Amino acid sequence: MKDDEIQVLTGLEAIRKRPGMYVGNTDDGSGLHHLLWEVVGNVVDLHLARLATELHVDVTADGWVSVGDDGPGFSMDVHPCHQMSALEVAFMTLMASGPSKTHHHPHVHLTPSMEGVGLPVVNALSTRTEVETTRDGKRWAMAFERGQVASPLRDLGPTSMEGTLIRFRPDPTIFKSIEIELDHVRDHLQQVAWLCPLLRVFFQERRVYGRGGLRGWAEQLAGGRPDASFSTEQKVDDVYVDIALAWSGDRAPIIHSFVNMQSSRDHGTHVQGLHRAFAACAKELGVESKAFSKRIEPGLIAIVHVGLYDPRWGNPSKDQLLSPVAGDVVAKVLGDQFVEAKRLREFFASRLSYLA
Question: What confidence score (pLDDT) does residue 110 get?
C-alpha cells in the first residue's frame, strides 16, 4: 500500500467510520440501545464507588434520551495531557475514564465495552449530545454534534443542585432506526435495580424497584415464596459473588447470569461453578450426581452475579465468560455454604423430599 493510500482518522472519526466495532449491530437495535447502556453504566459505576444514589432515565417521543444522576459531576480541572477540562476529555477522547474511574470496586466498568470508550462513542454516534454537570457549587454546560463541539463549555453560575444530566439523540444516518424500545429499557433498568438494590432507579419518572436484591428477584420469579429461597453474597480472592436460588413448581429451570453487572447470555465458567457446587452437594447428601440434578433442576431458579478484574470472554459481544477463577470461586462459596450453613442443606433437602 502506498503512503498516500493510508487513511488516517482523527478525533472521533474512527467511531463514525466503523460504528459496529464499538456498539455492535447498528441495524437490529442492539447497537442503538448499547448507547444508553454505556451512559447508564457510568452512573452505576458512580453508585458502586459510593458517589451516587439515584439514576434517572427518560426517553421522549422525538428520539431524545436523557440519563441523570446525583453524583459529584465532572471535574473542570484542565487535563495535563489534553489541555482541556475533564468533561471535554471524557466526551472527546477514546480510552479516557469517566468521573468515577479512580474509585472503583473490583467490578469496574459495567457496560460491555472497553473501559473509557463509552461517552465518546455516544457523542460520536449522536446528532447532538448535551451535558449539564455540577461541580463545586457551579453548574456547567456543553454541547456536541456528531462528536464535534457545538457549544463550548460554559459556566451557568452558582447552584444548589447536584449531579449530571446527559441528553443525546442517536444519529439516524448511523442507525437503521432510532426508535428506543421502552419495554427493553425498562427490563434492563429492572435488572440494574435488582443488582443494585440501594440505587434509586427511575424510568420515565416512575420508580423501578429492586427490593431484596437478587434474592428478592428469585423470590418474585418463584411466585413470592421466601420459604423456598436461599442467597449468599461474598468476596473471595478479589472476586465478588452474589448468588440467589429458589424453587418454583416443576417448570423448566431459569438461570440468569451476570458479570460485572452485565448480562452473560451464554453463561460461562460462573454458571459451570454453580453446577460443580450442585455435584458436590449431591455427594454430601449421598445422592448420585446425575440423579440429583435431574431431581432438583425442575423448578430451579438461579441468579449468579460475579464481579472480577479483567474477565476473559468467549466472543467479542461478551456473552460467555471464560475466566476459570469465576467458576472456582462460585463452587467454593456454595460448597462452603453447604457445609457451614444449615439453611442451604435444608434448601436442597426440602426439594429432594418434595420429589420423593
Answer: 42
